Amino acid sequence: MISFLKELFFLDDSVIVGVIDVDMNLNPESLDSILAHLFSDSDLAGIKVDAVETSVSSRSFVVSISISQNLPSSGNRLYVISEDELFAKYDDYKLPKPFSKSDHLEIDSLAKLDSVILYIERLEILPPTFFNGVGGNL
User: Fold this and answer.
1) Which terminus of the chain has fewer Cβ atoms in its 10 Å neighbourhood, N or C?
2) Which of 77, 67, 18 is nearest to 47 (CA)?
3) What is the arithmetic mean of pLDDT over 67-95?
4) 3-class SS at 119?
5) How far apart are CA 77 and CA 39, in angstroms?
6) Which position has the higher pLDDT, 92 or 100?
7) In a domain, 127, yes or no
8) CATH code at 28?
9) How would you classify residue 121: left for phi > 0, otherwise alpha for psi between -120 and 50, otherwise beta?
Protein backbone atom coordinates (compact mmCIF):
# COMPACT_ATOMS: atom_id res chain seq x y z
CA MET A 1 0.00 0.00 0.00
CA ILE A 2 1.23 3.50 -0.86
CA SER A 3 -0.43 6.66 0.40
CA PHE A 4 0.09 10.35 0.91
CA LEU A 5 0.09 11.59 4.51
CA LYS A 6 -2.68 14.05 3.56
CA GLU A 7 -5.18 14.30 0.72
CA LEU A 8 -4.59 18.04 0.22
CA PHE A 9 -1.24 19.84 0.13
CA PHE A 10 -0.27 23.49 -0.28
CA LEU A 11 2.73 24.91 -2.12
CA ASP A 12 4.65 25.53 1.11
CA ASP A 13 4.09 21.99 2.47
CA SER A 14 6.48 19.07 2.54
CA VAL A 15 4.84 16.10 0.86
CA ILE A 16 5.14 12.88 2.84
CA VAL A 17 4.43 9.52 1.25
CA GLY A 18 4.28 6.22 3.10
CA VAL A 19 4.51 2.67 1.81
CA ILE A 20 3.67 -0.49 3.74
CA ASP A 21 5.01 -3.71 2.28
CA VAL A 22 5.40 -6.70 4.57
CA ASP A 23 7.54 -8.58 2.02
CA MET A 24 10.23 -5.91 1.79
CA ASN A 25 12.01 -6.50 5.09
CA LEU A 26 15.02 -7.84 3.20
CA ASN A 27 17.54 -7.35 6.01
CA PRO A 28 16.04 -7.69 9.51
CA GLU A 29 19.12 -6.06 11.06
CA SER A 30 19.16 -2.78 9.09
CA LEU A 31 16.89 -0.26 7.45
CA ASP A 32 15.70 -1.22 3.98
CA SER A 33 14.58 1.15 1.24
CA ILE A 34 12.24 0.93 -1.73
CA LEU A 35 11.88 3.01 -4.89
CA ALA A 36 8.75 5.15 -5.34
CA HIS A 37 7.80 7.26 -8.35
CA LEU A 38 6.19 10.66 -7.63
CA PHE A 39 4.81 12.93 -10.34
CA SER A 40 2.27 15.69 -10.94
CA ASP A 41 -0.04 16.91 -13.68
CA SER A 42 2.65 19.48 -14.59
CA ASP A 43 5.57 17.02 -14.52
CA LEU A 44 4.51 13.61 -15.77
CA ALA A 45 8.10 12.30 -15.71
CA GLY A 46 8.38 13.25 -12.05
CA ILE A 47 11.05 11.92 -9.71
CA LYS A 48 12.05 8.52 -8.39
CA VAL A 49 12.88 8.60 -4.69
CA ASP A 50 13.99 6.13 -2.03
CA ALA A 51 11.49 5.58 0.75
CA VAL A 52 13.38 4.39 3.84
CA GLU A 53 12.09 1.94 6.43
CA THR A 54 10.95 3.83 9.55
CA SER A 55 12.72 1.38 11.89
CA VAL A 56 14.45 -1.99 11.63
CA SER A 57 11.94 -4.66 10.53
CA SER A 58 9.00 -2.20 10.56
CA ARG A 59 8.02 -2.94 6.94
CA SER A 60 6.82 0.67 6.83
CA PHE A 61 8.66 3.08 4.53
CA VAL A 62 8.49 6.86 4.27
CA VAL A 63 9.84 9.62 2.03
CA SER A 64 9.50 13.39 2.30
CA ILE A 65 9.83 15.67 -0.73
CA SER A 66 9.50 19.37 -1.36
CA ILE A 67 7.34 20.87 -4.08
CA SER A 68 8.08 23.96 -6.16
CA GLN A 69 6.31 25.92 -8.86
CA ASN A 70 9.50 27.84 -9.68
CA LEU A 71 12.17 25.12 -9.94
CA PRO A 72 12.26 21.96 -12.09
CA SER A 73 12.00 18.51 -10.56
CA SER A 74 15.28 17.20 -9.25
CA GLY A 75 16.37 14.91 -6.41
CA ASN A 76 13.65 15.18 -3.75
CA ARG A 77 11.92 18.22 -5.32
CA LEU A 78 8.85 17.90 -7.56
CA TYR A 79 7.68 20.61 -9.98
CA VAL A 80 3.99 21.47 -9.55
CA ILE A 81 1.59 24.30 -10.21
CA SER A 82 -1.44 25.27 -8.16
CA GLU A 83 -4.35 22.81 -8.34
CA ASP A 84 -2.23 19.96 -9.75
CA GLU A 85 -2.94 16.40 -8.78
CA LEU A 86 0.00 14.56 -7.22
CA PHE A 87 0.58 10.87 -7.91
CA ALA A 88 2.67 8.25 -6.12
CA LYS A 89 3.40 4.81 -7.59
CA TYR A 90 5.22 1.81 -6.25
CA ASP A 91 5.93 -1.45 -8.08
CA ASP A 92 5.63 -4.46 -5.77
CA TYR A 93 7.76 -7.32 -7.12
CA LYS A 94 7.52 -9.58 -4.06
CA LEU A 95 3.97 -10.84 -4.24
CA PRO A 96 2.50 -13.72 -2.23
CA LYS A 97 1.02 -16.82 -3.83
CA PRO A 98 -0.82 -17.34 -6.17
CA PHE A 99 1.41 -14.79 -8.00
CA SER A 100 4.56 -16.03 -9.69
CA LYS A 101 8.06 -14.63 -9.14
CA SER A 102 7.90 -12.77 -12.46
CA ASP A 103 4.64 -10.96 -11.56
CA HIS A 104 4.49 -7.45 -10.19
CA LEU A 105 1.71 -5.17 -9.05
CA GLU A 106 1.66 -1.40 -9.56
CA ILE A 107 0.21 0.34 -6.52
CA ASP A 108 -0.69 4.02 -6.66
CA SER A 109 -2.14 6.89 -4.66
CA LEU A 110 -3.44 10.39 -5.39
CA ALA A 111 -3.43 13.74 -3.58
CA LYS A 112 -4.42 17.27 -4.56
CA LEU A 113 -2.40 20.49 -4.50
CA ASP A 114 -4.10 23.79 -3.74
CA SER A 115 -2.97 27.39 -3.55
CA VAL A 116 -2.09 28.97 -0.22
CA ILE A 117 -4.10 32.00 -1.34
CA LEU A 118 -7.68 31.73 -0.14
CA TYR A 119 -10.34 31.70 -2.85
CA ILE A 120 -11.83 34.97 -1.59
CA GLU A 121 -8.41 36.64 -1.87
CA ARG A 122 -8.07 35.51 -5.51
CA LEU A 123 -11.01 37.71 -6.52
CA GLU A 124 -10.40 41.20 -7.78
CA ILE A 125 -12.78 43.63 -6.14
CA LEU A 126 -13.40 46.75 -8.20
CA PRO A 127 -15.20 49.91 -7.05
CA PRO A 128 -18.91 49.93 -7.91
CA THR A 129 -20.12 51.56 -11.12
CA PHE A 130 -23.59 53.08 -11.26
CA PHE A 131 -25.76 53.26 -14.37
CA ASN A 132 -28.95 55.14 -15.20
CA GLY A 133 -32.07 53.43 -16.51
CA VAL A 134 -30.82 53.33 -20.14
CA GLY A 135 -27.31 51.98 -19.35
CA GLY A 136 -25.38 55.23 -19.22
CA ASN A 137 -22.90 56.00 -16.46
CA LEU A 138 -24.01 58.30 -13.68
Assistant:
1) C
2) 77
3) 90
4) helix
5) 10
6) 92
7) no
8) 2.60.40
9) alpha
Strand partners, 48: 37
CA nearest neighbour of 3 among 63, 50, 69:
63
Mean pLDDT of 98-123: 71
Contacts of residue 75, Cβ cutoff 8 Å, sequence gap at least 6: 47
* Residue 116 belongs to some domain of the structure: yes
What does pTM read for this prediction? 0.76
Domain span including residue 53: 2-122
Structural domain contains residue 137: no
Four-residue CA torsion sign, 47, 111, 88, 24? positive
Per-residue DSSP letters for 52-110? Answer: EESSTT--EEEEEEEEESSS--BTTEEE--TT-EEEEEEEE--PPTTS-TT--EEEEEE
Query: Does some domain include residue 11?
Result: yes
